[in-house]
Fold Butyryl-CoA:acetate CoA-transferase.
Amino acid sequence: MDYQALYQQKLTTADEAVKVVKSGDWVDYTWCTNHPIALDKALAARQNELTDVKVRGGVTMWMPEIAKAEDAGEHFAWHSWHCSGIDRKIIAKGMGYFSPMRYSELPRFYREHLDPVDVVMLQVTPMDKHGNFNFGLACSHLADMLARAKRVIVEVNQNLPWVYGLTGTEINIQDVTYVVEGDNPPIAQLSAGGPATEVDKAVANLVVPQIPNGACLQLGIGGMPNAIGAMIAQSDLKDLSVHTEMYVDAFVDMAAAGKITGRHKALDKGRQVFAFAAGTQKLYDYVDRNPDVMAAPVDYTNDVHVMAQIDNFISINNAIDMDLFGQVNAESAGIKHISGTGGQLDFAMGAYLSKGGKSFICMSSTVTGKDGTVKSRIVPTLTPGSICTDPRSCTHYIVTEYGMVCMKGLSTWQRAEAAISIAHPDFREQLIKDAEKMGIWRRSNK
């Protein structure tokens, strides 16, 4: 087959390509760094011709053009699978909504529970000699989504790294409706965060000694997991491996420091496996055609049965708050949505199923509000409306700068005592009174 000839037949402008979108359609922008740019701008220009166009995306890294107009909500409705700060702004504007999920189930959603997508638009790498476009940084759920799409428009960006994959990381020109050559903008970057705070260091000093040589690491989204990862890069640990949902700069730092070899990994030996990646240009340069990394669908990376086969699986995530029962909220402040379940519950369960595996939920003991009020992150019960990301039956290790406790096997009063022991000292007496009122306090002989 003459792939180049087929490419030229399907090559068109963004303005022409988006004419396939009709009022009432479901349009998918895919995921994170792969959201379209030229096509998004062209679709926004058609705003006044369209109504009730429903758009899906997730971990949005820049404000879509379709969401910028004052009356954008009269034409488009945004649906996020996992909220970033940008997604929260779209929701606050009144034109966006969150779609709850365990991230591991998202490919199955497209296979079984969602109607076929009318139009998919996504950034891809340039086509190779075999007619394939690579998804680059976001394998995630894209293959299953594209398999159910009525029309697929790819937007070529020469700056998108080509990432080798397990499966589901490319689409062939034969399965593409239109090809649009974009302006090749730089790939959106996610800040690696500032220097580790004293709280970050205190938490890391508790977690890092729990990680054995040869462990397999997963780091969640957020400053504290990244800070811990950066400190692992400076530790004496060796022969680590990676199996994670999101690949971040801290892994690159660990690899550069010689900490990651993957030689003891039972599955995908020697390969750093992830569902999607976002970070600085350092990360994008590192993963580009690097055989040491491997993109994989999220129903593989986040499958508890896969994690269970990898010994010494270490999962490190963060939280917004936790109650005295051991329930963890990592996605909302009351009814104000912040992020999403993502893969945190998957990894909390999967790590525990691993021989020698451990799951760590890390957080600072307090948070300071915009009004300067200091609040405890360990609370009697979750705030009404807050989401229980990790049920009490699944929490393993909880860590603050004041200590680390294991919740497995503890009764309700033991859980309350353990949680209060790592709360900020200023809040402990009140938490004890709250626990007494709730009937879950029995001071031990410690």
